[in-house]
Design a protein that fits this description.
Elements: E1 5-6, E2 8-10, E3 16-22, E4 35-37, E5 61-64, E6 67-70, H1 74-84, E7 101-104, E8 116-118, E9 126-128, E10 134-135, H2 139-147, E11 150-152, E12 158-164, E13 172-175, H3 178-181, H4 191-200, H5 226-245, H6 258-270, E14 275-279, H7 283-295, E15 299-301, E16 306-312, E17 315-320, E18 323-327, E19 329-332, H8 336-339, H9 345-352, E20 359-361, E21 364-371, E22 400-405, E23 417-419, H10 424-429, E24 431-437, H11 440-450, H12 454-472, E25 486-494, E26 499-501, H13 512-520, E27 528-530, H14 543-557
Parallel strand pairs: 2-6, 2-27, 5-18, 6-19, 7-15, 12-22, 19-27
Antiparallel strand pairs: 1-6, 3-4, 3-25, 8-9, 10-14, 11-14, 12-13, 16-17, 17-18, 20-26, 21-24, 21-25, 22-23
């Protein structure tokens, strides 16, 4: 469940909470307090690269740019990369030299929600705690090849599901797929069949090529949420079964526009390629692009949070902690929440637009653990067959390397989803994503337990997570002295993880396309452009959306002619 120039381009690098902590002696890894991630907010001071800037008297150093990019997430970094390293024979409009590109980032690193964390002594001993994978038909996959970043296919795996009171049947029950649970809810269709009904059922009008038109669904679809639409189509018991099988909880909430979400889902469900993992992680792409920007003389300013974007008679002034930037064009590459923390007339104009206010976001949490043993290599089948529905995992099935659960303990403890290593790289690091959740109740509970972090907060959170692991994998996590031990813990929270159209956007005459079109020219008559996955909601949830957003701005405003890589409509089967 997730992406600027002489002109100012605003890109999307969502804020997050992060702490990497070593284990205490003999215990389950505890330690440090939370930090912040993302672009455009608070941080330290300093310039990492770029030519000397001018200054008159005391105060922030003045930097003259041609194109200023606010936000060093994937969209902002990609924009700076292509401006300073355009295709051969391309003249970048409005840029006399690569040194005229200024990339401004609040944190001490680039990447935003792309955040890989070290779990070993070698530079490549990292794993993703934000963006984690890609499809092989996305631009991200092409970009990885261009940059020389290796990608690999994941292992085949089986999925254990643990549900609380499924279909009203009291207790905790376990199974190995949607088919196992459907009878408990009185359903004949499984969750995959239901996706087909939601996306391509008879209630959905289709054109001559079979492309669905969700806005044409009768019954007031324009005002409905994803929850409303799903309940209309599947009925209440069917919808509850469907929701319980879906590990992305934020997708089905009252504030997600039904039409906008179905437009995203049909492409992701029927039009996606094969999953690939970049090795060692997505930060390899960011690092390669950063190196290329600097090699051509592009200026990168880290730990320099922007606070204001104002228009002037000949361009823009961006006020940051350590510098004042003068630019002819601005690319804003930070998420909506970060935009809202900035001042200046440019920001005021952006925030007044109905398109800006039509986007909502998911909140997510990832807790990554390094272990003292590869416990996932053992038998992870649920051992008590009286609690297993739909039969045991067949002999010869792929190993269980993911588990999804709706189980919440009486104190609120929950994990939502756990991912075991799916590549040899992650196996070698002995790391799991022990919590991957976009269930706000679950995330907020875990944050309450974590508190201010540190040794005590991390120990408390790990104790809570272990409760859930003992429920899901009782043969492995049995509370004994031989139980697997946590060696290291990383906590990462994104208040704006990925984006959707807000419920009612369709009724207000907005769409995924109209928001994307607006973002390219959000302030009439001014050379200000938005970049990021928030403005391309039909592809949000993947860093690819931020790259596609960047490509459109590069082509429309800077004279590049890159392949657009925009997601194409798919036909119903």
């Amino acid at each position: 469940m997730m992406n600027a120039r002489w002109a100012v381009v605003i890109g999307m690098a969502a804020a997050g909470v992060a702490a990497v902590v070593p284990a205490c002696s003999g215990g389950n890894g505890t330690g440090g307090g939370p930090g912040t991630g993302g672009s455009g907010g608070q941080g330290g001071t300093g310039s990492e690269s770029g030519p000397a800037s001018s200054s008159s008297g005391m105060g922030p150093v003045v930097v003259e740019c041609e194109i200023a990019i606010v936000g060093g997430g994937p969209g902002g970094v990609h924009t700076a990369y292509k401006l300073t390293n355009p295709p051969a024979g391309t003249t970048v409009s409005g840029l006399s030299a690569p040194s005229g590109v200024c990339l401004i980032e609040k944190n001490d690193r680039l990447g935003g929600r792309i955040r890989d964390v070290s779990f070993g002594p070698n530079p490549d001993d990292v794993t993703g705690t934000g963006a984690f994978r890609m499809y092989d038909n996305q631009y991200t996959f092409e970009l990885a090849g261009e940059l020389g970043v290796t990608t690999v296919a994941p292992y085949d795996f089986s999925n254990l599901r643990g549900l609380q009171d499924p279909g009203g049947k009291t207790g905790r029950f376990f199974g190995y797929g949607g088919d196992a649970f459907k009878a408990l809810y009185g359903q004949t269709l499984n969750d995959d069949d239901m996706w087909g009904e939601l996306l391509c059922g008879t209630q959905v009008p289709k054109d001559a090529s079979g492309h669905p038109n969700y806005a044409g669904v009768t019954g007031g679809i324009g005002t409905k949420s994803s929850v409303d639409y799903t309940t209309d189509v599947l009925g209440e018991p069917g919808a509850q079964y469907f929701f319980d099988q879906n590990r992305f909880r934020a997708d089905f909430t009252p504030d997600v526009d039904a039409v906008g979400y179905m437009e995203y889902s049909v492409i992701d469900y029927y039009g996606s390629g094969a999953i690939r993992y970049p090795i060692p992680g997505h930060s390899a792409l960011i690092g390669k692009m950063e190196d290329a920007i600097k090699a051509k003389g592009g200026q990168v300013f880290l730990s320099d949070p922007a606070s204001k974007i104002e228009s002037t008679s000949d361009g823009f002034t961006i006020t940051a902690m350590a510098h004042t930037f003068h630019a002819k064009q601005v690319v804003v590459a930070i998420p909506p929440g970060a935009v809202g923390k900035l001042g200046g007339d440019v920001v005021t104009s952006i925030m007044a637009a109905k398109e800006f206010n039509s986007v909502t976001s998911a909140k997510s949490m990832q807790v990554t653990h390094q272990w003292d043993k590869t416990w996932w290599k053992g038998d992870l089948r649920y051992p008590d067959m009286t609690k297993v529905v739909g039969g045991d995992l067949p002999q010869g099935a792929a190993p269980i390397l993911r588990a999804d659960t709706t189980i919440k303990q009486t104190d609120g403890s929950c994990i939502n989803s756990i991912e075991m290593p799916l590549t040899a790289h992650h196996d070698g690091l002995m790391v799991t994503r022990s919590v991957y959740s976009d269930d706000r109740t679950c995330v907020d509970h875990n944050l309450m337990v974590y508190g201010s972090g540190g040794v005590a907060g991390t120990q408390a959170l790990n104790d809570d997570i272990l409760k859930s692991l003992r429920i899901m994998f009782p043969a492995i996590f049995d509370g004994s002295a031989g139980e697997p031990k946590i060696v290291k813990t990383d906590v990462n929270v994104h208040d704006e993880a990925w984006f959707y159209l807000k419920t009612g956007a369709t009724a207000a005459g907005l769409s995924n396309k109209s928001v994307f079109d607006w973002s390219v020219n959000p302030v009439s008559g001014k050379k200000v452009y938005l970049v990021g996955d928030a403005w391309y909601p039909v592809g949000s949830g993947w860093s690819n959306a931020a790259y596609v957003s960047s490509i459109r701005v590069l082509n429309e405003h800077f004279g590049l002619t890159l392949a657009p890589h925009e997601l194409q409509p798919v036909s119903c089967p």
